[in-house]
Amino acid sequence: xxxxxxxxxxxxxxxxxxxxxxxxxxxxxxxxxxxxxxxxxxxxxxxxxxxxxxxxxxxxxxxxxxxxxxxxxxxxxxxxxxxxxxxxxxxxxxxxxxxxxxxxxxxxxxxxxxxxxxxxxxxxxxxxxxxxxxxxxxxxxxxxxxxxxxxxxxxxxxxxxxxxxxxxxxxxxxxxxxxxxxxxxxxxxxxxxxxxxxxxxxxxxxxxxxxxxxxxxxxxxxxxxxxxxxxxxxxxxxxxxxxxxxxxxxxxxxxxxxxxxxxxxxxxxxxxxxxxxxxxxxxxxxxx
Length: 288
Known about the structure:
Blueprint: H1 2-19, E1 57-62, H2 82-93, E2 98-103, H3 106-110, E3 119-125, H4 128-131, E4 134-136, E5 141-150, E6 164-168, H5 172-181, E7 185-189, H6 192-200, E8 206-210, H7 211-219, E9 225-242, H8 248-261, H9 263-272
Parallel strand pairs: 1-2, 1-3, 6-7, 6-8
Antiparallel strand pairs: 3-9, 4-9, 5-8, 5-9
Keywords: Signal
Protein name: Amino acid ABC transporter substrate-binding protein
Domain Solute-binding protein family 3/N-terminal: 57-275
């Protein structure tokens, strides 16, 4: 009887542990999904080991929620997305089996106010100003800036100078609107959700952000939002590291391997390109 009772308790405890796999701890996906949710990782790739904060796990920072890059609205539920699957492949090629996600604001990442992670992947531009306080990998993609508005907006590349424009704190778009565009009013937000909700509420006339951010948001808005144009503001995006990190070299080698064997392109083709809702290169250029 006692043996049977303890067997039942052990099974129940195991079940509870399986259900509480995330919540700030390294976790593996459910059986049949592998260790990285719905991401497909390369079998037997070249391994470039790195010393990580948590043994056997890659701790990745991002500003969540961001379903386009990290599919799922909480740390616990993320199981896909082009950024998460990039993280997964890097972890896989570092000989790691788990990802530990931590949340951090965009401004905290680019100003080094947060450092409790191995690296951050959130389509962060590698700029000279940011390199003073953080380190970057080689780039994994290149973006420009899109102009997101409510559908039916009469905003033009001329009238935007008389508009209220919203941007993220610490972003390249903030520097652009302050130094170059100089609209009538600029509002600064700490998260994409705050930025886009302000646009939907009519508190701003346009939101400026990366094309890879505004295009999926418009595509999934149910016709409420559209991208009218773009500015050649942006550049290379890369993984961000705390200053002096020893992991940069390993990640650079992994990214080089991924570019050479086509894995990086395959991730973007599967996870990013379908959600853009169009070709960003065909957006009207508002800088001319």
